[in-house]
Fold this protein.
Amino acid sequence: RETADLLVHLGINLNFAPVLDLAVNPNNPVIAELERSYGADPDRVLRHGRWTIEEFHRKGLLSAVKHFPGHGSSLDDSHLGLPDVTREWNSTELEPFRRLTQEQLLDMVMTAHLYNANWDSEYPATLSRNVVITMLRQELGFQGVIVSDDMQMGAIVQNYTLEKGIERAVEAGIDILLFANNSSYDPEIASKAFTILRDLVDRDVISQDRIQESYLRIIKLKGSLRNR
């Protein structure tokens, strides 16, 4: 409630929270060790996540839960490189996302920059159509806005060019590309990303219909703010 009140006071209407990752690996450098998770028990994480989202909604705020399909089991930090969770990840990590989707409480979902050969033999989650479309949209049934984690994190920039990262993320089904612009500051990043997107559409690499799909989801989400 205090967080929600502060955000409303500051004129902010979206918070990239709560974290729904399960702290199943106590040595995880970016989740458990930073105390970003509500715990390792999916029911506990679900309960606290639900309370947080409901309080945001009562104050007219949108939330973006993260990091789908679950960052809590990773041994490495995706800010610094691409974690491989093929051996560590367990489907239990999906449960908070699944349950809150069923309860129709989710506004936005943020993807994780994680590699798992069982999800996709080539691309990490954010760039994988199997994760974004098959797992999140089709299997879990989430039809809201999907946002990427920071596209300037090591997991992406060490393995893909800016253009390829954008192309793959949009083709995978990401609706909003997030550039935190703090790990490596680029004052022109927004215009660069826009130019790349426009060029990809002009060259028919990405269809206008694909852009329209995301646009309509975003406009619908923005419209929901008027009803809160």
Q: What stands out?
A: The chain has a mean pLDDT of 96. The longest helix spans residues 42-58. DSSP finds eight helices and four strands in the chain.
